[in-house]
Amino acid sequence: MQKYELKFLWTVFRDFLKRVPVRHPVVEDGFRYCEDLIAHGKRADVWLKARDVWAKSPEWVPSELLGDGHRPVRWAELAELERRALGHVKPSAVRRRLEAMGQLLDIDEVGVSILEVLVLKQFSSTASSLFDLIERVSARPTMAFSIASGHSPAVIERRLAPSGVLRQLGLLDHSRFAKMDPFPDLSPSTAALLSQPWKSAADARHILLGNPLGASLDWADFDHLGDGRHFVCDLLAGTLRQGQRGVNVLLHGPPGTGKTEFVRTLAEQLGTELYALGEEDECGGEPAPYERIGSIQMAQRLL
Question: What H or E segment, with its residue span, contains residue 49?
Fold first, then answer.
């Protein structure tokens, strides 16, 4: 286990012991199911005996386990001592990647922390076990996330709201919210940014948006559209020159009548790049409306 992840999880375990009633049975389960974390502690011998002595001493660590001369400490304080013993640690590669995502997509520190919790939940069995315990004692979904992230439930609720940037950009799996899951999955676009190497905004744009579409037909191939094509071309050319926003063109007609081919050729005529957004979901099927919207919002941030 990396030192950064270890310190992160000791922090969460400390907050878990602080915020859960000391006699709650799940605390005893915490000593059992978090053995991977406990085994890395400076006082692993004490932690491994915790579940045997917890019933008699649920609040204070028995003095005989600490040794002569050690001041009395609560279990949460002992977790804090473990956290401090790790000293200063450098952010992990995943944390650095998440911070870069935050800068690229204008996501604040709370949003980055939320994504970090979800990454650990998805890819670390030790973190997943700990977060599952927290979920069992949380009266509402955001309380579990609050303990895991260190932010208040109200702050978490705002970031996970439909109007929040994480959902607006499609960074979280929308389907999990219908089940009130405290820890939703990461979306495919988030997983792509975390799993593939990138060093610049251009690299990230390529991962999420792909290559610009090219034209396979000439402008003259659409002479049959008459003055309509010239009107659209002039309208968008002026929009691009003036940097205007909110100027949109809707093309309608049955599938196979050449709408996409016309747009490809139009972009080439204008000398601008064209990207296709929300064409299919991660399985190659028809995307849901929220996936299309997330794709558009993401592209607007990136472009």
Answer: helix 44-53
